Amino acid sequence: MKILVYNNDTNNMETYNRELSDPMPYSKNDYLSVREFRGSSKSDTLWTDKRTMEAFSRLRELYGSPIHVGYAFKRIGEGGHSNMSQHYVGTALDIGQGMSDEARDNIRNTAINNKIFTYVEPKYLTPTWVHVDKRNPTPACSTGGYPVIKQGAKGVYVATLQDALNTLGYGAGEIDGIFGNNTRNAVIRFQRARGLTQDGIVGCNTWRALTTQVANSR
After folding, report:
1. pTM over 0.85
2. Which letter, b or e, does each residue of 199-213 get, where b requires 16 or more Cβ atoms within 10 Å of its Cβ?
3. Which of 37, 48, 50, 113 gives the lowest tally of CB atoms within 10 Å of its CB?
4. Per-residue pLDDT tens listing for the chain (218 residues)
5. For residues 174 and 138, what is the distance between their CA atoms, to the nearest angstrom?
6. CA 91 → CA 3, 64, 185, distances in Å?
7. Residue 111 exposed, middle or buried by CB count within 10 Å (0-12, 13-18, 19+)
8. Cα 16 from Cα 14, distance rounded (Å)
């Protein structure tokens, strides 16, 4: 498996080659395997960021026992989530499936009380699992989702953008998480085809159009 990791400390994309049985990069004490992170996704390339992996390791450490991971990484259109889900950018985990309600409450409260993640889903929305993620706190749309990104950006949102553009045949090039000329030109071609402002900047309207089209294409 090829794994791209955005290092939030250095602003660099890192590439790893791991087997499914190997631990994820930055997973302390092998707390999270590549197989667990990949889940039911069919992708041979995964992406996440360092702070997400460190956050899960911290949660597991504080909880003190293994935590079942039901879903983590997905590609847009692989099902089960909204069009701009944080699972598609590799920063979300749905955990605790099959565990007791008491155990899930403990996990959820540990995450909230220690401010480990950016967002922890309320229990009434996910009563049989715990959703945690390290989303960017400033979405492009008022309803949430992904942030504005443009040329020069790096990270998981760029990787997801490149994957979506490639899926639709706009030729963003290799998924590397770096918003360069090829990615910008692909964005402009997509914007032109959809009648959007052709500025190469991926804001709310472009994200909505892109993720909706990809979700409907699979």
Report:
1. yes
2. ebbbbbebbbbbbeb
3. 113
4. 999 999 999 999 999 999 999 999 999 999 999 999 999 999 999 999 999 999 999 999 999 999 999 999 999 989 778 899 999 999 999 999 999 999 999 999 999 999 999 999 999 999 999 999 999 999 999 999 999 999 999 999 999 999 999 999 999 999 999 999 999 999 999 999 999 999 999 999 999 999 999 998 86
5. 27
6. 13, 22, 26
7. buried
8. 7
**Strands lying side by side in the sheet with 12-17:** 12-17, 2-7, 45-49
Residue 28 DSSP symbol: G
β-sheet bridge partners, residue 46:
3
Which pair of tokens denotes residue 213? Answer: 């089209």
| Listed residue (139, 52, 128) closest to 87, CA to CA | 52
In the structure encoding, which two tokens stand for residue 36, read together? 């667990």
Angle subtended at Cα 199 by Cα 161 and Cα 170, rounded to the nearest 5 degrees: 40
Say how many C-beta atoms besides its own lie within 10 A of residue 154's C-beta: 19
Return the amino acid letter for 131.
H
